[in-house]
Amino acid sequence: MGDSSGIPGLILAGGRAQRMGGGDKPMRTLAGRPLLDHIIARLAPQCDGLILNSHGDPARFSIYGLPVIADAVEGFAGPLAGILAGLDHVARERPDAREMLSVAGDCPFLPSDLVARLSHARAHQGADLAIAASGGQLHPTIALWSVELRHDLRHALIDEHCHAVQRFAARHREAVVGWPDTPLDPFFNINTAEDLAEAERLLRA
Q1: pTM of the model as a whole
Q2: Residues 174, 126: Cα–Cα separation, whole Å
C-alpha cells in the first residue's frame, strides 16, 4: 500500500438534505449518535486531521473541535465548491500536504482502508486524483485529490460554471479503486428517512 500518512480529510457536510426535510443531515441520529460521529470514527485513524465543510454558524459543530470552512464560491455550488474550499484550506494551513481526501457527510460505513488504497492507486498510476467505486458505480465525492488541482477547479467553478464532480474529474488523470458492495456497500449513503432506517438495520446486523 502507498504511504497515506500526512493526508488530511475533508467531510462535506454542507448539503441541504432536502429529501429529509432540510437541516444538517450529518447531525441526524444513527444508533443513538449523530451520523457525523460514525464518519469521524471511520476517518480519524486514517487521516492526519479532519476538516468540516459546511455553511451557517460553525458553532453548532464546536463539540468536535474541528476547523469548519464554508464554500469558497458564492451561492450553493454543490460539493465541488466544498472540495475547492478544502483544497484552499489545506494549501494555506498545511503546506506540507500534497493530497486531500474528500468524503460525503452521509456515508457511515466508510472502509478502514479507504485512504491507503486511494493513495496507493494515485501514486502507482500517476493520477491527479483517485475515486472510490463499488458495485460498478463511481462515488466521485469520495476521492483523493492532488492539492494542485485547486487552480483548475477554481477556474472550472467560477469561469465555466462546472458543478458536476464527475465531469470535472474526467478532465484529469483519474484512478478508480473498487470495493465489493456485499455483504455491505461501504459507500451506502443516507438521503432519505428510509435510508436512515436501513442504516440502522445494517448496524444491528
Answers
A1: 0.92
A2: 9
